[in-house]
Amino acid sequence: VQLQASGGGSVQDGDSLRLSCAASSYTFREYVVAWFRQAPGKEREFVAGVRRNTGYTSYEDSVKGRFTISRDNAKNTVYLQMNSLKPEDTAVYYCAADRGVIVSSVRDSRAYHYWGHGTLVTVSS
Predict the structure, then answer these.
(1) Which of the 8 DSSP states describes residue 74?
(2) Do residues 38 and 44 touch, judged by C-beta distance below 8 A?
(3) How many distinct helices (H) and strands (E) make up the chain?
(4) Is the Cβ–Cβ distance between 121 and 97 less than 8 Å?
(5) Residue 98 and which of 56, 58, 63, 110 are 20 to 30 A apart at CA?
(6) pLDDT tens-place string over residues 81-110
């Protein structure tokens, strides 16, 4: 499956952005999908994930209450709505997907075989 991430940009502290991750596969509904991010000089970190059947979501603590992940299986797309953005949210954001991700590995980037190219989010103070 091919993933195309989009929606990044340069915004001010407190602004909002919505990222999209569009998939090429019509079986996208069978995939666990997650967003990760990597800031300059830092390791890639989990941001949010959504499971395939239940739609259950999970978030990294620093984005809880500000970010919302959702999926539209009819459009083969997963979204990341980011509100109240902060300068520390500045990073390249990647979407990732895999059919075989188990619950305990949703936050582990090594569990995902398919990755988008990333979209840059820059938040200025």
Answers:
(1) G
(2) yes
(3) 0, 11
(4) no
(5) 63
(6) 999 999 999 999 999 999 989 888 999 999
